[in-house]
């Protein structure tokens, strides 16, 4: 299909009320880690590294260590400036998260922090001033550190009640400011080895060894923690609907698009099994309200015995989400054959696809995979959908005149927007798109700053040095045109 046809498909396919915007996370954006009464979070004890497993988790803050979340890009003090820039681009929606430890510093506190609540009052008021709809992730890769230390995080069922109380506070406080909520970011990461720490489980082997390495993986613990998050999510959905009838509460999945490397039936079956376990296990529970059969078989074969309480099944049935959101960055292949060339991806590894190019971080660039994924998910659930993370991590160069010519980012995003237009023409009910890291922020996997996604450049380097000044990249003006034209102008 030629370029002009693609543009016309996008022009007629994006609905008038389509939610264009950008996405961030508190621990990668806010900073102010000890300001306004905020407590220490699990993200606040992670040092910077060069790749995911080299990041260290420290039981106490070490003098001289680089903890990227402590300052991040200082949205805490600069939110008015940043939201004004989002408005200048034309954002209809801004995906952000609330830092749990800013509301309940220890997680199990008797009362929430009024200072923390007031900070988000101000953020939501600023968004409303500019006509930007907030899309709020309730838990985005962080939890109060005290819950990890005292309860081993989500491995302990008591964390469910702490989370639901947190939800009750923010639902009531912000019920006239926020309509769209996501219960957990990329909840399916708990199906993967690195998910042990993402579950806030600081003692995966029953001891005090603290490390982000997959060597500490405990699959039984991960799936038990995941079950507790399922129950917490379902209870939050039910509670939210009781507090405000107009709340729309969704799930968020890190969608791992995987193709069979060959037409060998073993490769095809393996790709289906990966799709099921990595992607659909979590969304089946959150959308359909029950564990799928393939998950029960997996648990039996792996001798994973989940501790469930009476009534858990009913809780899951009564707490199904209203819409489905996901992150999409790249695709990989799978094969039953040994010794194939592997390549990276969002929190996962796969096999290299000979038909695709890859980014500097070895994430394969596959816009068609986004269209395939949208159709695959929508055909299963039939729910309204949002793409809430998508983008290209790259090293940006500031030119002598101060400009940042990030055509490589524009090229990546253009083709993914076109793919969304095609999916809309296919009949997918896609209602929004929030590009990841709309302003440069700290990488979740490594703590780096040099891996940039934003339309807005932030002057800060990997060592935490810089002015934090903001400037507009070429992609800023490109995305401004895309939003103004509702997806029709992509060049």
Automatic annotation (TrEMBL):
Gene3D superfamilies: Glycosidases (3.20.20.80). It comes from the Bacteria. The keyword Repeat does not apply. InterPro entries: GH (IPR017853), GH_1_N_CS (IPR033132), Glyco_hydro_1 (IPR001360). The keyword Hydrolase applies. Its EC number is 3.2.1.86. Keywords: Glycosidase, Hydrolase. Pfam families: Glyco_hydro_1. One of its GO terms (molecular function) is 6-phospho-beta-glucosidase activity. Belongs to the glycosyl hydrolase 1 family. This is 6-phospho-beta-glucosidase. The lineage of its organism: Bacteria, Bacillati, Bacillota, Bacilli, Bacillales.
């Amino acid at each position: 299909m030629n370029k002009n046809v693609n543009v016309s498909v996008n022009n007629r396919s994006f609905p008038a009320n389509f939610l264009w915007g950008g996405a961030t996370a508190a621990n990668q954006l806010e900073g102010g880690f000890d300001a306004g009464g905020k407590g220490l979070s699990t993200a606040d004890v992670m040092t910077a590294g060069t790749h995911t497993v080299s990041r260290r988790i420290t039981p106490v803050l070490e003098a001289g260590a680089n903890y990227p979340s402590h300052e991040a890009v200082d949205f805490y003090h600069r939110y008015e400036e940043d939201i004004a820039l989002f408005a200048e681009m034309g954002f209809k929606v801004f995906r952000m998260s609330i830092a749990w430890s800013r509301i309940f510093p220890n997680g199990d506190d008797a009362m929430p922090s009024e200072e923390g609540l007031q900070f988000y009052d101000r953020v939501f008021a600023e968004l409303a001033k500019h006509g930007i709809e907030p899309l709020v992730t309730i838990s985005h890769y962080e939890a109060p550190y005290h819950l990890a230390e005292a309860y081993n995080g989500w491995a302990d069922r008591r964390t469910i009640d702490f989370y639901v109380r947190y939800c009750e506070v923010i639902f009531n406080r912000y019920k006239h400011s926020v309509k769209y909520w996501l219960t957990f970011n990329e909840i399916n990461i708990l199906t993967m080895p690195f998910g042990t720490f993402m579950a806030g489980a600081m003692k995966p082997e029953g001891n005090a060894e603290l490390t982000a390495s997959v060597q500490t993986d405990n699959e039984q613990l991960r799936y038990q923690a995941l079950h507790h998050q399922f129950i917490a999510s379902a209870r939050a959905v039910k509670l939210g609907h009781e507090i405000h009838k107009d709340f729309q509460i969704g799930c968020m999945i890190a969608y791992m698009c995987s193709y069979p490397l060959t037409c060998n039936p073993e490769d095809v079956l393996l790709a289906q099994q990966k799709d099921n376990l990595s992607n659909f296990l979590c969304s089946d529970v959150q959308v359909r309200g029950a564990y799928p059969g393939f998950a029960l078989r997996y648990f039996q074969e792996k001798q994973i015995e989940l501790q469930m309480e009476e009534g858990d099944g009913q809780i899951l049935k009564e707490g199904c989400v209203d819409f489905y959101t996901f992150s999409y960055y790249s695709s990989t292949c799978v094969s039953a054959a040994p010794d194939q060339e592997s390549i990276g991806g969002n929190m996962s590894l796969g096999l290299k696809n000979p038909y695709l190019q890859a980014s500097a971080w070895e994430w394969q660039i596959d816009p068609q995979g986004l269209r395939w994924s949208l159709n695959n998910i929508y055909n299963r659930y039939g729910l309204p959908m949002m793409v809430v993370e998508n983008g290209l991590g790259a090293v940006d160069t500031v030119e002598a005149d101060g400009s940042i010519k990030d055509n490589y980012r524009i090229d990546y995003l253009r083709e993914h927007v076109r793919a969304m237009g095609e999916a809309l023409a296919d009949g997918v009910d896609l209602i929004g798109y929030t590009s990841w890291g709309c302003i440069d922020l700290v990488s979740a996997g490594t703590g780096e700053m040099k891996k940039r996604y934003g339309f807005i450049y932030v002057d800060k380097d990997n060592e935490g040095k810089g002015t934090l000044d903001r400037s507009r990249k070429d992609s800023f003006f490109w995305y401004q045109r895309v939003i103004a034209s509702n997806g029709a102008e992509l060049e």
